[in-house]
């Protein structure tokens, strides 16, 4: 998978990871992929819902230590 932009949102509390993600994805072209790193546990439910409501595709997510990683394709 080709990553077009990586967003480091570690240490930010809700709703800042989503706010920063929205700003970052607006800089991408349709079809490009944003990789997000966050430590906010609420992101597990926030990112799938946000991606769906915005017409984006959550490609995958994984947890590595305390860091949650998400890959979202801009819709």
From TrEMBL:
Coiled coil, from the record: none
From which organism does this entry originate?
Answer: Psychrobacillus soli
| UniProt xrefs under CDD domains | SirA_YedF_YeeD
Q: Which family does it belong to?
A: Belongs to the sulfur carrier protein TusA family.
Which segments cross the bilayer?
none
The highest taxon in the source lineage is Bacteria
- Name listed for the protein in its UniProt record: UPF0033 domain-containing protein
Domain spans labelled UPF0033: 7-31
| Pfam families for the chain | TusA
